[in-house]
């Protein structure tokens, strides 16, 4: 096949309109073929390949004379045909080269764009200067494309994949390259050719390729100058007043302030009513002051050593969040701005922010997801280095997690603490993680504020138009070291030699705007004077502060939730029997209509219905009664986690699938009552850290929603331990932020080896805030006082009824506390682990302990051994005691709520069995489970009058044995130790 045939091959799909004989493709050099091609082009230029369209437009082709009937045309001499073919080939190759050049700039132009302010750069005022003008030749982006001298001034047809011509269809090659360089190789590097949607790619081209689009009006430039001044002068004021304090200022990237302002202004103009921001500590104080409009005196007061006025330990000033309501000055529309509190774990806030946004969208019925906008501000090293970024970005298109697109802003310091990018990531850019969701990425030079503003507006418009993620990469530098006390010259001497010699972006822009006649020197001095006065006034007010109120920094205020509530009283958790019966019947019936279910499901529904008829429930049915009764009361319930729709142990089946129709599903509990709240049950990605953070953020938005995250196995929550430690366990202490979310952690050593057995309850108990040496006074409100004072609740229920009550109690409490709830595995189908409806009706409540029953309770003085335990192991103990006929000598009491510790009930139980040896029995190893938490509290409760001893497995580095023989031997030893007692 000739080279020309290779070029024209792809046009065959369009050329069929020209009625060309198929054999003509075998001889593309024939005059008949050229004639038919030319006739097709005359009828419709779009019916032929673009290379032929370009060739015919040049006028190089001359059609042969019209042949009369019977006239025999003489063959064209071979030499002439070859000459025509060479001409055609040359023209076609040139046009294809031009198209390849255009694509090269679109794909790789960002690689040579002047986005780094630390490199030599050209004047931001000169919008017509290209790299070719500066260096005398085109950049390497087109180095491998064939260009000769004759092509420079020759016009070429522009393909539909570019907008550089605006309304012009052809341009000389020299002009084509110049426009491409101005679009792709100046101060904005655009990555978008990985996007597989033509409409989206063309949308970006229209905003960057069309000549002259990146221009600001005089008014916009003056506004930009003012916003830059606030960002720069705020940092300068802090440096002047507190030069020896850490503040993690944004010097070197002060353009973040106009960037954020532009994003917010544009978003509000396009329908946004709330902005939720998640960010680490760099630039946080500046964002608080100039974006969230936190009163300066409140910020400055954080630099003083003040006594706290309210509860909690607080946190450092650059971790605090805030919630503000006001009016957006650009649009005069109301706007709420939330800056979510975040610990030092940098990107940890990302999923929390996304969950908060999703919940706010739900509350506002924001189906189009345009009213609440998430903005995540990243650091370059943390964005590429922390896995939670990847976990969070993958929420982007998931139906039950997506938020309609996140605007990612990267403060690209080009360094992480002291580590260069070449040692901290393998990807070319820190933003490459965003490519997995086809997000456009705009790298922009932070010392060109006009380009930053344009890119920021474009990002907001993209999010509004396509409801997808977008990235603004502010390529900047860090003026100081990791913080203001750090010495960066130790590790980056060359970089910081350059940085020390640089003017800040406001000074540079002042010079540029003065040259353009936008502002005068007097106006610039007035900007500076006015803002410095604002800061001084804030400083004076802060100096008058005597205490600090942590409540000023709540990022999720629940208006009127705590109003007129008695913290010593909990609303009843029982419900009427007819409600239980109605929910249970619906949940135990097959889906309505001709829905085809799996045969095994029919058997499960039949078994459920038998329980309903006997007015009893197993674990799955009890859970359905719990959720259903709350839905009836208007409480939105959301349950997420890995495989929660069916349930890891195939017990839940809240979502069933049609067996003969793909993607047809039926979700139980969504249609129990005509006016019920919405129930959401959704499988999550295989992520613990990210999903737990998302659900935590979701729970913060509305205290009257029940938000539950279930780990597939309790052990898997280990991957989310950071979220538990720094957000959930300590959120109220640090940020006065209550949270009522529930974490379900399947637990029990009957699992499949060491990683499927233990929820590591000891870790959650270790994080509790109660004092093991303090015995609270036994008052009528003892239990409620404990709940109000504790940081979270840790429990292990053994009956569906207790599960029913403790979950409902989460909503009925006058305050909110996280609930860490160990859930069973084998007990899900255990015939003894069932409850009667009578245990859930009105007048019943959660039992913090379930006392020993039967013969031991009837004759307590004769009991030799009192066993306290928690969870599934109770049934093992009880079975053995019954089989050995020892239930009159051994009493077994279940502690259902380990934290807060039920001192009052424990003392009462111990006093009842005054002659018994007291032991704590557990199936976990001695260094795991509840023992280390229980022992000191039992000693406090008993005041040294009696001893409590341990019965269980010996210490082990592994949570459970993976060997069945060893597991069984340990189990038998445990059981034998439990039934031993001294006469």
Automatic annotation (TrEMBL):
UniProt-annotated location(s):
Mitochondrion
Keyword Transit peptide listed? The answer is yes
Question: For this UniProt entry, what is the primary localization, expressed as one broad class?
Answer: mitochondrion
According to its UniProt record, which cofactors does this protein need?
Mg(2+); thiamine diphosphate
EC number, as in UniProt = 1.2.4.2
The family database entries (Pfam families) matched by this protein are listed as: 2-oxogl_dehyd_N, E1_dh, OxoGdeHyase_C, Transket_pyr
CDD domains noted in UniProt:
TPP_E1_OGDC_like
Sorted alphabetically, the Gene Ontology BP terms of this entry are: glycolytic process; tricarboxylic acid cycle
Q: Can you provide one Gene Ontology molecular function annotated for this UniProt record?
A: oxoglutarate dehydrogenase (succinyl-transferring) activity
Give the top-rank taxon of the lineage listed in the UniProt record for this protein: Eukaryota
Q: Quote a single Gene Ontology cellular component term.
A: oxoglutarate dehydrogenase complex
Residue ranges constituting the Transketolase-like pyrimidine-binding domain according to the UniProt record: 617-830
Please provide the record's keywords in A-Z order: Glycolysis, Magnesium, Metal-binding, Mitochondrion, Oxidoreductase, Thiamine pyrophosphate, Transit peptide
- Family named by the database record: Belongs to the alpha-ketoglutarate dehydrogenase family.
Q: What role is this protein assigned?
A: The 2-oxoglutarate dehydrogenase complex catalyzes the overall conversion of 2-oxoglutarate to succinyl-CoA and CO(2). It contains multiple copies of three enzymatic components: 2-oxoglutarate dehydrogenase (E1), dihydrolipoamide succinyltransferase (E2) and lipoamide dehydrogenase (E3).
The protein's matches in PANTHER family, at most eight in alphabetical order, are given as: 2-OXOADIPATE DEHYDROGENASE COMPLEX COMPONENT E1, 2-OXOGLUTARATE DEHYDROGENASE
Q: What is this protein called?
A: 2-oxoglutarate dehydrogenase, mitochondrial
Q: What is the lineage of its organism?
A: Eukaryota, Metazoa, Ecdysozoa, Arthropoda, Hexapoda
